[in-house]
Amino acid sequence: MLNAVQRLDTARETNCTPEMYEQLYRRSVEDPDGFWLEQAKRLEWVTPPTKGGDWSYDPVGIEWFADGTLNLCHNAVDRHVEAGRGDATALIFEPDDPATPGRSLTYAELRGEVVRMANALKAIGVKRGDRVTIYMPMIVEGVLAMLACARLGAIHSVVFGGFSPEALAGRIEGCASRFVVTADEGLRGSKRVPLKANVDAALAEPDHDTPIDGMLVVRHTGTEVTMTEGRDHWYHELASDEECPCEPMGAEDPLFILYTSGSTGKPKGVVHTTGGYGVWTATTFSYVFDYRPGEVFWCTADIGWITGHSYIAYGPLLNGATQVVFEGVPNYPDHGRFWDVVDKHQVNFLYTAPTAIRALMREGDAFVTSRNRSSLRLLGTVGEPINPEAWRWYFDVVGEKRCPIVDTWWQTETGGVMITTLPNAHDMKPGSAGKPFFGIRPQLVDNDGAVLEGATEGNLCITHSWPGQARTVYGDHERFEQTYFSTYKGKYFTGDGCKRDEDGYYWITGRVDDVINVSGHRMGTAEVESALVSHAKVSEAAVVGYPHDIKGQGIYCYVTLNAGEEGSDALYAELRGHVRKEIGPIASPDHIQFTDGLPKTRSGKIMRRILRKIAENDYGSLGDTSTLADPSLVDRLIEGRQNR
Ligand code: 6R9
């Protein structure tokens, strides 16, 4: 099975043949500046750039197209209207409940709506350079808020609507954001998410000090919410149609901040800039999906994640594409919802996560085969490794063996797709992301940093910069340098393990650091640990990932309690609830094991390797436990695991 090659019987004419890929890739690494200045012409610049990349990984400083100026909202919206494509459909909104009416906006209408949102932002005082926190459901106004920030030159920081008030507060504070855009409530699988109430709770957090100058609230479900006089405003009351020109921005001016988890500490505010990110998302969207005018694209991600930024808000719109914006979930009203949406809107491209594919696969083929999917032309996955069984089901059942699959590996920090096959240019191998995108130079190194050649396995680094690369961590450049460029000096370290086969295909094996990937959501084990120890009864906690059939990885927690406390079912439930409250439902522990101690070295370091093996029920290969301060603990941990 491994390394099996999947070819398509019916390859259609493509924008990139195998020969073109080879030729373009070679050019992109031999003459990156020439190549990327050429690609930069996909965008309309106020001042076209004459400079390509100017970067160093030691010390770390990265610039692309530095002397160019442009506005990405203009490129995503106005430009298409000015070019006479105002009647083309931009967004098709599919609400959570299929019985409620949806909405569809042409590019001309989108322009009108973005202007209204930008004017409302202006009315609450937003100016160029301000940070605006967007905490929204998956509705059109979420995308509008992002584009409206870009129009004004404000920096958006979108926080996933599933995050708790505590997590939201940390992200508002982290970038001293004085403005918030939210909605009364969100809807997900008929459940209501109290977004406005969560913002109020976040702002009431004790460690929140940044004063909020203004909040826009979008009326979505119509539920009653508390509005604070002078601070909170209904969006529809401030929206207006006055002219609102696009602010010309320097290519290196920040476009957005997006918080993401790492192996240590609090989530980092990764910063992406205007020109490089714009060129990167426009170029990758065009090649990876081979999109043609009139086709319908659907990325099921939330705008709270990088995938929703790059392949909902920016990539498709920069290409003038038509796309579906979906508020709902794959299993509501039933497990056929994705395929209902595909048929209803004649979707040609479906871009989703392996966890969704595995969850739907488990429900059987009938939900799929009972729906017409003849419009589908290409399938994509992102977020975590896809196991070959799920890949096969996606290919055989969903795509009826007609649709190429692109398994796209990338990260919040990379801005857009980095490793993938290109449709029809490459054979596919189920489970392998494929080949590097143009300009990307992957390198595998061993733990000491020695470069590994040929077919091998190691830690995945990227040796040269690309336009879509994150430039810094907001307010903490040293942390940026430390996190990504210090493990292997002079290289960008991805945190992923990876194999390369004899055909030069890359197979991502998952994170090699203390980051876990639960249903495609990235989480630091340290974040879950600090949530657990913030509970009054908990003394210490260690959290590891373990293989989970649907989620990819599950969250396994080892917890020691304060003296006098006793583990019980009630406390188990209380701790789960506590973590959900501190971080959000995506961080719900799958297992909590109470233990009288954690395996530590004599110097006090927790031996996570052992905890991982025990969580995986793999006791045969615990490795050397002789350096443990208390070796007998291992047997007690195993016994505790078996009783779970
Ligand atoms: C886009 C996104 C990044 C981490 C990354 C890796 C995992 C993403 C993958 C994949 C295997 C793929 N990952 N795509 N692993 N195959 N096609 O997901 O960004 O949320 O920052 O997560 O996700 O481990 O390092 P982000």
Automatic annotation (TrEMBL):
UniProt EC number: 6.2.1.1
GO molecular function, one term: metal ion binding
InterPro entries for the chain: Ac_CoA_lig, ACAS_N, AMP-bd_C, AMP-bd_C_sf, AMP-binding_CS, AMP-dep_synth/lig_dom, ANL_N_sf
Assigned GO CC terms: cytosol
Binding site for Mg(2+): V533, H535, V538
Chemical reaction(s) catalysed: acetate + ATP + CoA = acetyl-CoA + AMP + diphosphate
Domain AMP-dependent synthetase/ligase, first and last residues per copy: 83-464
Enzyme class: ligase
Keywords assigned by UniProt, alphabetized: Acetylation, ATP-binding, Ligase, Magnesium, Metal-binding, Nucleotide-binding
Signal peptide (residue range): none
Binding sites annotated in the UniProt record for CoA: R188, G189, S190, K191, T307, N331, S519, R580
Cofactor(s) demanded: Mg(2+)
Post-translational modification note: Acetylated. Deacetylation by the SIR2-homolog deacetylase activates the enzyme.
All copies of domain AMP-binding enzyme C-terminal, residue ranges: 527-605
Chain positions recorded as ATP binding sites: G383, E384, P385, D407, T408, W409, W410, Q411, T412, D496, R511, R522
Domain annotation Acetyl-coenzyme A synthetase N-terminal: ranges: 21-76
A biological process term (GO) from this entry: acetyl-CoA biosynthetic process from acetate
Residues carrying N6-acetyllysine: K605
Family recorded in the similarity comment: Belongs to the ATP-dependent AMP-binding enzyme family.
NCBIfam families hit by this protein: Ac_CoA_lig_AcsA, PRK00174.1
Main function: Catalyzes the conversion of acetate into acetyl-CoA (AcCoA), an essential intermediate at the junction of anabolic and catabolic pathways. AcsA undergoes a two-step reaction. In the first half reaction, AcsA combines acetate with ATP to form acetyl-adenylate (AcAMP) intermediate. In the second half reaction, it can then transfer the acetyl group from AcAMP to the sulfhydryl group of CoA, forming the product AcCoA.
PANTHER family (alphabetical): ACETYL-COENZYME A SYNTHETASE (PTHR24095), ACETYL-COENZYME A SYNTHETASE 1 (PTHR24095:SF14)
Protein name, entry field: Acetyl-coenzyme A synthetase
Organism in which the protein naturally occurs: Qipengyuania gaetbuli
